[in-house]
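New to this. Explain these tokens.
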Amino acid sequence: MYTKKICRTYVLLDEQSKKAVYSLITEFDLEEWKFYGEHMTVVYGRQYNTLNLDYQLGDEVQLTGTHLGKSENCVALKVNGFYSFNEIPHVTLLVNQTNNSTPVMSNKIKNWDELKNQIILTGKLIEL
């Protein structure tokens, strides 16, 4: 049986950037919340090359984290510096494990608080 592959393109954060975003979540009980903090979604459901952007897969990308968003389901870091098909480009940091939340719920965060100090993140542009 053939299953059609769904394309997903991400900026996959490097280890230093993952540590930087992890430092933002020290106030949360990690028994209730699961840490993700590894990528920003560029596009889901279509191939990257159809976007006609200047970057190639495998290139290093720099993002700037500007705001921390929170809801009962997720915590995310709002970023800028590269295209994302999401209304608010972000890195999902935490997902609430006590109420069956999923990472995609971070797209619904409405409350964003500006960081006192923006953080610079780097990662590679990859397609799965």
